[in-house]
Specification:
The complex is a heterotrimer of chains A (291), B (314) and C (493).
Chain A: H1 13-23, H2 25-46, H3 79-115, H4 117-132, H5 135-146, H6 150-176, H7 180-187, H8 192-228, H9 240-248, H10 256-283, H11 285-290
Helix pairs in contact in A: 1-10, 2-3, 2-10, 3-4, 3-6, 3-8, 3-10, 4-6, 5-6, 6-8, 7-8, 8-9, 8-10, 9-10
Chain B: H1 2-29, H2 34-39, H3 45-55, H4 61-73, H5 87-122, H6 127-141, H7 144-158, H8 174-208, H9 211-218, H10 223-253, H11 255-261, H12 266-275, H13 279-307, H14 309-313
Helix pairs in contact in B: 1-13, 5-6, 5-8, 5-10, 5-13, 6-8, 7-8, 7-11, 8-10, 10-13, 11-12, 12-13
Chain C: H1 2-19, E1 27-32, H2 47-53, E2 62-64, E3 70-72, E4 75-80, E5 86-91, H3 105-116, E6 131-138, E7 141-146, H4 153-156, E8 183-189, E9 193-198, E10 211-216, H5 220-228, E11 234-238, H6 244-248, E12 253-268, H7 278-287, H8 290-297, E13 303-304, H9 327-336, E14 343-349, H10 353-367, E15 371-377, H11 380-389, E16 395-400, H12 421-432, H13 436-453, E17 457-469, E18 472-473, E19 490-491
Parallel strand pairs in C: 1-10, 14-15, 14-16
Antiparallel strand pairs in C: 2-3, 4-5, 5-7, 6-7, 8-9, 9-10, 11-17, 12-16, 12-17, 13-17, 18-19
Helix pairs in contact in C: 7-9, 8-10, 12-13
Classes of the chains: A mainly alpha (291), B mainly alpha (314), C alpha+beta (493).
Transmembrane segments (chain B): 95-120, 141-161, 173-197, 235-257, 285-307
Keywords (chain B): Cell membrane, Membrane, Transmembrane, Transmembrane helix, Transport
Protein name (chain B): Peptide ABC transporter
């Protein structure tokens, strides 16, 4: 899914944009949820209710209680602590995957828009080839080839972010190039690279940010899926998808174990999507008024 | 038009060729010896060598690549290392699970999403809109395999209405087979429906602003009639584009859901084949799915050309 | 036409449906964990092949019974020469293969020669290594001459890898197995189920079941609901994990806790420093808490073992006390080995719950004595290559499910990299001995040597959890070999 709001440059400056964003319920809700999740991940570096590397088999599969708010898993680890530590993994994988997509996709897209001709064709054909691969299936194939693990999951998810960002950057840049201020810059003798860096990129930055939020959310879902089938982060590193897999086999005896990791994924993705919606609303007041 | 068609066809063929090189090269890197895997821990070296020769694993790489591509062109995908049957037979066996599953979930998604999106557009800004779009937000955010687990727990373990997983085969009768596909289809359809509902709503709101809709309203037609009769029909074009994309996604994207429900479909076939190092099966299925996506894109391109005269003139 | 056939079939089914109230059921759906890669027991090591076909579809000269005893099968009787080198088998004369061809001595010679040929793909060629010649005396008599006497020869012939196949059907057995057993192969829906049906022309006692389906249900998440809903009526080798107490308290099911021949061990690379030091291996043995491993990786079911031997075997000695759980002792031994600051190593885990779960627990336990293990999960293919073939590993966890396989420790170049001439001598003597009392004594010596040397971390005997409908009778409670023998299975009432 790619978002292309019809007007993606805040025409009335940053402060007005922020004012609109703060007036958007989606933005506020999304921002708070995302900030809370990020805070949880940060806190887990310094403190968790329990040590997740210590297995106390005698305490296995306890129901939620005052000592273990979310209960314990099949090794007697505290589920709340596992979710806290697991958030680091989800965030890291999705974030780096977005970074790969942006880092390679945006230059490709900008280059295609700036040069046109065969280069543009080439970039678009590259996109076609990558898009022709079913993303999840190919991610499974990549992790199977290079071995399961968080790093390979990042690569597998990141590769499929490249054409997404290339497409968004190209479409955005193509819309900027005919504008008057670019024509002025060209008349002033600035080169294409310089124009791209100085004028095009700043103007498509917010657009990329919105797409980044969406890909971030999709990345969290993809990582959870890969971990669930055993190809993402490997034990003993806690991860939400892996926790769901472990819980599935024990659903008859300890159903709450399957509840909390799933909720964690859902809330995180929801928060990011709301944030993305809020930003694109604020970018496009016309669309918002219609809502 | 002919030139445009020829160009698109060329692009499709080039995409397929590039994809086949990528798939073949990638799977060559996979560690593990299929012969060793088939014979197990106590196999002797000469038994292993005999099997490797039998399977053609000792041929040079380019020969194997050309053999494989030439075979595929004739719909011969080679023989599975693990099952020692033609790969095409395995694919056919599995596609009768994956294809109906994809179609059912697509149908479910459309049936849920279009009324929900239209309803939200009709009640724009009111409680109904907020409610259905809120539900859509949840639907996009929920991991479908987790949703599947919740469905299993509720309907299979607790209420015992449907089986928790597995597939009895179509020979067991239409109804038992459909029953086994019901929960997976719902789990797959939900996020798709959520996306589609959002697209439907915004497409409708877009068309509601058009002149002919205003004219219709000015004639005194009730808002509901205008929306369902006139606007929806015109909003269908972006909606159908998304539906087309979702179909290829569903056909390939069932891999995790098939694992949750132990459905013997294409995704699970690939998954098993990867762990069993049955590379020829992986190659065949992935290429088939890539070809499907390329074909769908090609059809979309053609339909655009039919609709848009500017492209036709090119 | 086609629609009509389906309708007729449906009508027949309904008729059967109403009549089952009168007679006992004759169908069975049986769950199994792994799907066989193909259906030829003479060309693959996968246990799943035998679990479908052994004793049901294929038979050998001898067979293994429910308690591990050798019973006659296609050979009615046999005579052993005084020097123990010549076996003369009298065959049954009225046996037919499922394709209608006759079974005779030529088929036996073909099967044994094929299994031990140079280009054979038989996964257990070692079973036939002792055979020198196979001669057809007459259509019902076969004479097998051995290179040297072999105490376990009749037992070896009872393995699934030694079943008799016909020359006409041998090449296609992988797809469409043709044997002599009481069931015939019917259908294989790949990835889903294998069906066998009663063989009306069976030479022996007819079976009670008309058809049996082996359905693939890979893990606890699928097995438990399938049993509860009645979709599957038996899982002889279930992995239902923590749902066990629930199934045990349900009167609809019979739960049988049996033993397998699977010694679950912490495989150790005995040549790789620091594991080449006896003290280090002893320290690991002291650091391991078997109870926690059994609780966490096997839901509390499983017998702790102290050596590589099945507790179900009569020659078993309990050696779990050799190195009791004692952290202070473990640290002391590490100090003696010059490793008082601990060390780090890798632990490669194949994709089975006992290994993946057990590995995390062992890593946690060894960390308490300063050994830091890095867990590397691997697929079976990589495990076979890296650990088993290339011996590129420090530690691993695996269950050795072959029956009576203590002799693997005497094999040169086996992946443990263990080399002890004293042990080899015991095994050599064992191979030349057929006296039962003497053999038992030798087995005990062998177990003791392995325990003392702490070759591997000996953890527990993999349990066999069998669950089936309480009205079902005749399934094996133990698994002396990998099989689901349905020949005596029937429904009560």
């Amino acid at each position: 899914m790619t978002y292309l709001p019809s007007a993606f440059i805040p025409r009335d400056g940053l402060s007005a944009f922020l004012a609109r964003a703060l007036a958007s319920r989606s933005f506020i809700a999304g921002f708070i949820v995302t900030a809370l999740i990020a805070l949880m991940a940060l806190v887990s570096f310094f403190w968790t209710p329990d040590d997740v590397t210590k297995l106390v088999v005698g305490d296995r599969m306890l129901a939620p209680s005052a000592a273990h708010w979310f209960g314990t898993d099949h090794f007697g680890r505290d589920v709340l602590s596992m979710i806290m530590v697991g958030s680091r993994n989800s965030i890291a994988v999705a974030l780096v995957a977005v970074g790969i997509g942006m880092g390679l996709g945006v230059p490709l897209g900008c280059l295609a828009a700036a040069r046109g001709g065969w280069l543009d064709d080439f970039v678009m054909r590259f996109n076609d080839v990558v898009f022709a691969f079913p993303a999840l299936l190919s991610a499974v194939m990549i992790t199977a080839v290079f071995g399961p693990g968080a790093v390979n999951a990042i690569i597998a998810i990141g590769i499929f972010n490249i054409p997404v960002f290339a497409r968004v950057a190209r479409a955005g840049a193509l819309a900027i190039w005919p504008r008057e201020f670019i024509l002025a810059a060209r008349a002033a003798g600035k080169g294409k690279t310089r124009i791209t860096l100085e004028h095009v990129l700043p103007n498509i930055a917010t657009l990329l940010l919105v797409q980044g939020t969406i890909q971030f959310a999709l990345g969290i879902l993809a990582e959870a899926g890969l971990s669930y089938v055993g190809l993402g982060a490997q034990p003993p590193m806690p991860s939400w998808g892996r926790m769901l897999f472990d819980a599935q086999t024990r659903m008859m005896v300890a159903p709450t174990q399957a509840l909390f990791p799933g909720l964690a994924i859902m809330i995180t993705v929801l928060g990011l999507n709301l944030l993305g919606d809020g930003v694109s609303d604020a970018l496009d007041p016309k669309l918002r008024r219609r809502r | 038009m002919i030139a445009y068609l020829a160009q698109r066809l060329l692009v499709a063929a080039a995409t397929l060729l590039a994809a086949s090189l990528v798939v073949f090269a990638m799977l060559e890197v996979i560690p593990g010896d299929p012969a060793r895997l088939m014979l197990g821990m106590n196999a002797t070296p000469d038994a292993l060598e005999a099997l490797r020769n039998e399977m053609g694993l000792n041929d040079p790489l380019p020969v194997r690549y050309l053999d494989w591509v030439a075979g595929m062109a004739a719909l011969d995908f080679g023989r599975s290392y693990t099952y020692s049957v033609p790969v095409i037979d395995l694919i056919v066996e599995r596609i009768v699970v994956s294809l109906p599953l994809a179609l059912i979930s697509l149908a479910l998604s459309v049936v849920i999403a279009i009324p929900a999106g239209a309803f939200a557009a009709q009640r724009r800004g009111r409680a109904g809109d907020a409610l259905s779009m809120g539900a859509a937000q949840l639907g996009v955010a929920i991991p479908n395999f987790w949703f599947a687990l919740l469905l299993i727990y509720l309907f299979a373990v607790w209420l015992r209405l449907v089986p928790a997983g597995g597939f009895p085969g179509w020979s067991a009768g239409i109804w038992p087979a459909l029953k086994a596909l019901l929960l997976p289809a719902v789990a797959l359809a939900l996020p798709q429906a959520a996306i589609l509902a959002r697209v439907t709503r915004s497409a409708l709101i877009e068309t509601l602003g058009e002149d002919y809709v205003r004219t219709a309203r000015a004639k005194g037609l009730p808002f509901g009639t205008v929306l369902w009769r006139h606007a929806l029909r015109n909003a269908l074009i972006p909606v159908l584009t998304i539906v087309g994309l979702q179909f290829s996604f569903l056909l390939a994207g069932t891999i995790i859901i098939e694992n949750v429900f132990y459905l013997p479909g294409l995704g699970r076939l690939v998954f098993q084949a990867i762990t069993q190092r049955d590379l020829i099966v992986v190659e065949g299925v992935v290429m088939l799915l890539v070809a499907t996506v390329v074909a769908v894109n090609f059809l979309v391109d053609i339909s655009y050309a039919v609709v848009d005269p500017r492209l036709r003139a090119r | 036409m086609k629609a009509w056939t389906i309708l007729a079939a449906a009508a027949t089914l309904t008729l059967f449906g109403t009549s089952t109230g009168l007679a006992a059921r004759t169908d069975l759906v049986l769950g199994m964990q792994l799907e066989p890669p193909h259906l030829d027991p003479t060309a693959g090591a996968a246990a799943a092949i035998d679990e479908v076909l052994y004793a049901n579809v294929f038979e050998g000269l001898t067979r293994i019974g429910p308690s591990g005893e050798v019973l006659p099968a296609l050979a009615d009787s046999w005579a052993i020469s005084d020097d123990g080198r010549t076996y003369t088998f009298k065959l049954r004369s009225t046996v037919k293969f499922h394709d209608g061809t006759d079974f005779d001595a030529e088929d036996v010679k073909f099967s044994l020669d094929r299994a031990r040929a140079a280009d054979s793909t038989n996964a257990q060629k070692a079973l036939f290594a002792a055979i020198d010649t196979v001669e057809v005396v007459d259509p019902v008599t076969v004479k097998v001459t051995l290179k040297q006497p072999q105490g376990s020869f009749l037992y070896n012939l009872g393995w699934g890898d030694a079943v008799v196949v016909a020359p006409e059907s041998a090449p296609t057995n992988k797809e469409k197995p043709v044997g002599t057993g009481p069931f015939k192969f019917d259908n294989w829906a790949k990835g889903s189920a294998i069906t066998i049906v009663r063989n009306p022309d069976y030479w022996g006692e007819p079976v009670a079941l008309d058809r049996a389906e082996f359905r693939i249900v890979p893990d606890a998440a699928s097995q438990v609901p399938a049993l509860l809903s009645g979709d599957i009526q038996a899982i002889p080798n279930a992995s239902i994990g923590d749902a066990l107490p629930q199934m045990q308290s349900d009167p609809r099911f019979k739960v049988v806790l049996g033993s397998t021949e699977g010694e679950t061990i912490l495989s150790t690379n005995n040549k790789k420093p620091p594991f080449d030091k006896l003290e280090v291996r002893q320290a690991i043995a002291h650091a391991i808490d078997r109870k926690a491993i059994i609780d966490g990786a096997s839901s509390g079911i499983g017998t702790p073992i102290g050596s590589h031997f099945s507790p179900a075997n009569k020659a078993y000695v309990d050696l779990t006390g050799t190195y009791p759980h004692d952290l202070a002792k473990a640290k002391e031994l590490l100090k003696q080995a010059g490793l008082e600051n601990g060390f780090s190593a890798t632990l490669k885990l194949p994709p089975v719950p006992y290994a993946r779960d057990g590995g995390q627990i062992i890593a946690s336990q060894l960390r308490d004595v300063g050994i830091d293990l890095q867990i590397i999960p691997v697929e079976w293919a990589d495990w076979l290559k890296q650990v088993f073939t290339d011996k590129d590993y420090d530690l691993s966890i695996v269950s050795h499910t072959e029956p009576n396989d203590i002799d693997i420790y005497s094999r040169k170049d086996y992946y443990f990299n263990y080399d002890n001439p004293a042990f080899d001598k015991v095994i050599e003597e064992l191979n030349l001995t057929s006296d039962e009392a003497k053999r038992t004594e030798l087995y005990k010596q062998a177990q003791k040597i392995l325990a003392d040397d702490a070759v591997n971390g000996f953890l527990f005997e993999l349990p066999k959890i069998g669950i089936w409908d309480a009205k079902l009778e005749g399934l094996w409670e133990n698994s002396p070999i990998q099989a689901n023998d349905l020949t005596k299975v029937k429904w009560l009432d």
